[in-house]
Design brief:
The complex is a heterodimer of chains A (about 300) and B (about 425). Chain A has about 300 residues and is an alpha/beta fold. Chain A is built from 8 helices and 10 strands. Chain B has 3 domains: about 210 residues, Rossmann fold, CATH 3.40.50.300; about 80 residues, Translation factors (Elongation Factor Tu (Ef-tu), domain 3, Beta Barrel), CATH 2.40.30.10; about 100 residues, Elongation Factor Tu (Ef-tu), domain 3. In chain B, a hairpin with a 4-residue loop joins strand 10 and strand 11. The longest helix of chain B is centred in the middle third of the chain and has 15 residues. The radius of gyration of chain B is 24 Å and the shape is globular. Classes of the chains: A alpha/beta (about 300), B alpha+beta (about 425). At the A-B interface, helix 1, helix 2, helix 6 and helix 7 of A face helix 2, helix 3, strand 2, strand 3 and helix 4 of B.
C-alpha cells in the first residue's frame, strides 16, 4: 500500500496562503496588510502570524476607515493589533473629506464605501507601500473571480482586468515599474465556508457582531440594517428589535444583517451550509449596478 | 461540551480540476449543474443571472454570467480569462479552473491546467473526437495532468446510443495512446442539460455501469500527484526574530516542493553543497514530525549554514545537478512580442530569479495535429514549442515530468515586467 500523503482542504488552503504571504514579504520592499477587523482580515492576520512565527509580522497593518464603523469592530481591532504587537496605520476617509479630496454623498442612502479608494491610495502613497495584502476572495463577487493572487496596479492604483499577468504553478511575478504597486490576495481560493471552518479549527477570536445578538434594526430595500448614527431613516421605516448577526462587517451604512439565532461557530457553519444567499447579498454597495465591483476596482478599490 | 455535529470537514481534501470548452459544447451547463446541485449557486446569484440573461435576450439562464463578470466579457459573451469556481461536497472541496476552449485561448488553458489534478475533456456526442478534443488533451498531457475524464455530453441527442459512446471511447483511446503523462482516463456518457450521470445516475443508459461524474470527482485518488520521493525545499524567506526568547533562531521558511522532510534528516544546501541535519520543523502550534508537498514549513538546521532565498534544501542522498543549460517546452503568452532565438529575459524558477537567453527554438507544435513545425521557428501568442535556454546562474531543477514545481519556470520581459512564457523543463 502507498503511504497516504493527502492533507485536508483547510491545510492546503493554509499552506497556499502562507506561501503567498511569505512571497509578498520577500518580493516587495514595503508591503502592508489591510486590516478592517472583519473576519477575512482577521484570518489573514492569523495566517501571517503563522507564516513568520516566532518573528513578528514583517509588515505594518492599515485600516481604511470610513468613520462609519460599528463600535464593536473598533474595540476588537485595537485589542487585536495590541496583542499582535504590530503597528496600525489608519487611512481616514473623514480626512479625505476634510481635505476636499472627495465629496461625501448626500441623502439618506449616502455611503462612504466608494470613497475608501481615495483614502486607500493616499495611505499607500504617503507610506510608500508597494504592495497591499487584502482579504478578498474569488467566490465573493464576479469581478473578484478574475483577480490574481498578485494583482498588478499602475501608478494610479488602477486594475486593468484585460491585461493581467498569468499565474502558473507556484510562481508569482511581483516585478514592477517605478511607482506601480500590487494588491495581494492570499485568500483567493477560500470560500465563506472555508473561512468559518478554519476559524473553528484554529479557534480564532472574532468580533461579537458575527454572532447572534439582539439589536435595533430597520429594513431597507429588503436588507436588514442596524440602527446607527450614520444612517437617516426614510419615512415609513420602523425601528424594531431583532435577533440578528452579520455575515460580513464593512461600513455600517452598507452592511446588512441577517436574522439568526446562531451564537456559536457550529451553528454558524450549519447556517452557512444551508444559506441560499451569498454573503455579499447583504451588501448594498454591490447592488448599485451589475459591474459595481469591477468599476470600483478599476479605480483602485481593494 | 457538545460534540461537533459538523466536523466532517476536517476529513475533506481538495481536488483542483480544469475544464476547457466553448459555449456550444455544453460546458457552462455542465458546470452549472455541478454547482447548482451541490448548492454552490445562491439565490441572489441566480436572480441576478436570470435578470441579465433576460436583458440580453437569452432563452435560458446563461450560467456563464456567473463568473464572466467583467464588463468586456458580458458585452462580448465570451470568457477572456481563467474563471475560478468553487464548490464542495461532504467529501471534498473542488476548485474549477474554467477556461475558454478556442485555440486563441491556449494560454488560458495552460494557466488553468498548471495547478490541476484532473482535466475534464468535453465531447459533444454528435461530433465525436474533433480537433478541439485533441488540443485539450494535448494541453492536459503537456501540463502533466495525470487524470482525465472524457465526458461524452449530449447523449440525449443521440438517443442514448451505446454504440455512439463506444465509438468515441475507441477513437479517443487510439489518439491518447501517444499522451504518456495521462495515467487514468475515465469515460462517462452524460447529458448535462437533463442531468444524466452528472450528479444522479442515468435512467436512460442502463448499459452504463460506471460512476457518475460527481461520484468520480469525489472519489478519484489524488494522493500520489506530488512527488513524495525526491525531497526539495526551495527557501523563500529566512525567519530571524531577534527577540530575547528566540535569540539564535534561524528558521528557513518555504513550501515543500517534493519528498518528505523529518527532524534528524541529512540534508544538503544547494548550490553551496554544505551538508547538515534538520534540527526541527517548527510551527506556531509546536514542532511537526514531518512535512511533505505541498505543505508550508519552517525548518531549523543543526549547523549555522549560509542559506537564503533562492537556495534549495535537498536530501544528501538525492541531489539534483545544478545546471545553466535547460531544454524546455514553452507556451508563449505575449501578444506584443514574439519569441525568436537569442531573446533575453528574466527567468523565475521556484524562488530564484536569473537572467536567461533563449539560445535556440527547436520546433513549434501544431497542437491540433500534434505534428512538429520546423520551418517556422517564431513563437507567437499561444504557440507551444521546444526551446533551449542558457541562464546566468545555475538552476536547481528537475524535469517537469518528475516534479511540476521544480520543473517549471516563467519568462519575464525585462522592459515591461510582463510574464511572457510558461516553461516545462525536459
Amino acid at each position: 500500500m502507498h503511504q497516504d500523503y493527502t492533507i485536508t482542504h483547510l491545510k492546503q488552503l493554509e499552506s497556499e496562503a502562507i506561501f503567498i504571504l511569505r512571497e509578498t514579504a520577500a518580493q516587495f520592499e514595503k508591503p502592508v496588510l489591510l486590516f478592517s477587523g472583519g473576519k477575512d482580515s482577521i484570518v489573514m492576520a492569523h495566517l501571517a502570524k503563522k507564516a513568520f512565527w516566532p518573528a513578528k509580522l514583517p509588515f505594518q497593518l492599515m485600516h481604511v476607515d470610513t468613520g462609519h464603523n460599528f463600535p464593536e469592530t473598533m474595540e476588537f481591532r485595537d485589542k487585536y493589533v495590541a496583542e499582535l504587537g504590530a503597528e496600525l496605520i489608519v487611512a481616514s476617509v473623514q480626512k479625505s473629506i476634510d481635505e476636499g479630496k472627495v465629496i461625501e454623498e448626500k441623502g439618506p442612502r449616502a455611503s462612504r464605501n466608494g470613497l475608501q479608494t481615495v483614502a486607500l491610495l493616499d495611505g499607500i502613497e504617503e507610506n510608500k507601500f508597494d504592495a497591499a495584502l487584502g482579504g478578498g476572495r474569488r467566490d465573493e463577487e464576479k469581478a473578484r473571480a478574475k483577480e490574481r493572487f498578485f494583482s498588478h496596479r499602475d501608478e494610479f492604483g488602477q486594475w486593468d482586468p484585460k491585461n493581467q499577468r498569468p499565474e502558473l504553478w507556484n510562481i508569482f511575478n511581483g516585478r514592477k515599474g517605478h511607482g506601480e504597486q500590487f494588491r495581494v490576495f492570499p485568500l483567493s481560493n477560500w470560500t465563506e465556508m472555508d473561512i468559518w471552518q478554519y476559524i473553528k479549527a484554529e479557534n480564532i477570536e472574532l468580533p461579537h457582531l458575527y454572532f447572534s445578538h439582539e439589536r435595533d434594526c430597520f429594513v431597507r430595500d429588503g436588507v436588514i440594517m442596524g440602527v446607527c448614527d450614520f444612517i437617516e431613516l426614510l419615512p415609513g421605516e420602523k425601528v424594531e428589535k431583532m435577533v440578528v448577526r452579520f455575515r460580513t462587517i464593512g461600513d455600517a451604512t452598507c452592511t446588512g444583517a441577517c436574522l439568526s439565532t446562531a451564537d456559536n461557530l457550529d451553528d454558524i457553519i450549519d447556517e452557512v451550509a444551508a444559506a441560499r444567499q451569498t454573503e455579499r447579498g447583504t451588501r448594498a454597495d454591490d447592488k448599485r449596478s451589475e459591474t459595481a465591483m469591477e468599476d470600483r476596482k478599476k479605480q483602485g478599490y481593494f | 461540551m457538545s460534540e461537533d455535529n459538523n466536523s466532517g470537514y476536517l476529513d475533506m481534501d481538495l481536488l483542483r480540476f480544469t475544464t476547457a470548452g466553448s459555449v456550444d459544447d455544453g460546458k457552462s451547463t455542465l458546470i452549472g449543474r455541478l454547482l447548482y446541485d451541490s448548492k454552490a449557486i445562491f439565490e441572489d446569484q441566480m436572480e441576478a443571472m436570470e435578470a441579465s440573461s433576460k436583458a440580453r435576450g437569452d432563452e435560458n439562464v446563461n450560467l456563464a454570467l456567473l463568473t464572466d463578470g467583467l464588463r468586456a466579457e458580458r458585452e462580448q459573451g465570451i470568457t477572456i480569462d481563467v474563471a475560478y469556481r468553487y464548490f464542495a461536497t461532504p467529501k471534498r472541496k473542488f476548485i474549477i479552473a474554467d477556461t475558454p476552449g478556442h485555440i486563441q485561448y491556449t494560454r488560458n488553458m495552460v494557466t488553468g491546467a498548471s495547478t490541476a489534478n484532473l482535466a475534464i475533456v468535453l465531447i459533444d456526442a454528435r461530433k465525436g473526437v474533433i480537433e478541439q478534443t485533441c488540443r485539450h488533451s494535448f494541453i492536459a498531457n503537456l501540463l502533466r495532468i495525470q487524470r482525465v475524464v472524457v465526458c461524452v455530453n449530449k447523449m440525449d441527442l443521440v438517443d442514448w446510443d451505446e454504440g455512439v459512446f463506444n465509438k468515441i471511447v475507441d477513437d479517443f483511446k487510439s489518439f491518447a495512446s501517444r499522451l504518456d503523462n495521462i495515467v487514468d482516463v475515465t469515460f462517462i456518457p452524460a447529458s448535462a442539460l437533463i442531468g444524466d450521470n452528472i450528479v444522479d445516475k442515468s435512467k436512460n443508459m442502463p448499459w452504463y455501469q460506471g460512476p457518475t461524474l460527481l461520484y468520480h470527482l469525489e472519489t478519484v485518488y489524488i494522493g500520489a500527484d506530488e512527488n513524495h520521493v525526491e525531497a526539495r525545499f526551495p527557501v523563500q524567506w529566512v525567519i530571524r526574530p531577534h527577540s530575547d526568547e528566540y535569540h539564535d533562531f534561524r528558521g528557513f521558511a518555504g513550501r515543500v516542493a517534493g519528498g518528505v522532510f523529518k527532524a534528524g534528516d541529512d540534508v544538503t544546501v544547494l548550490p553551496s553543497g554544505f551538508t547538515t541535519k534538520i534540527k526541527a520543523i517548527e510551527s506556531m502550534d509546536g514542532p511537526q514530525q514531518k512535512v511533505f508537498a505541498p505543505m508550508s514549513a519552517t525548518i531549523t538546521l543543526e549547523d549555522e549554514i549560509d542559506m537564503s532565498r533562492g537556495d534549495m534544501l535537498v536530501k544528501a542522498n538525492n541531489r539534483p545537478v545544478p545546471t545553466q543549460d535547460i531544454d524546455a517546452m514553452v507556451c508563449w503568452f505575449s501578444s506584443d512580442k514574439p519569441l525568436t532565438g537569442r531573446g533575453k529575459y528574466i527567468l523565475r524558477h521556484t524562488t530564484k530569479e536569473v537572467k536567461a537567453i533563449v539560445t535556440e527554438v527547436c520546433y513549434k507544435m501544431n497542437i491540433n495535429t500534434l505534428r512538429k513545425i520546423e520551418d517556422d521557428l517564431t513563437l507567437n501568442l499561444n504557440d507551444i514549442g521546444r526551446i533551449k535556454v542558457r541562464t546566468s546562474a545555475p538552476l536547481i531543477a528537475d524535469s517537469y515530468k518528475s516534479n511540476r514545481i521544480t520543473g517549471s519556470f516563467v519568462l519575464i520581459d525585462e522592459l515591461t515586467n510582463a510574464t511572457v512564457a510558461a516553461g516545462m523543463i525536459i
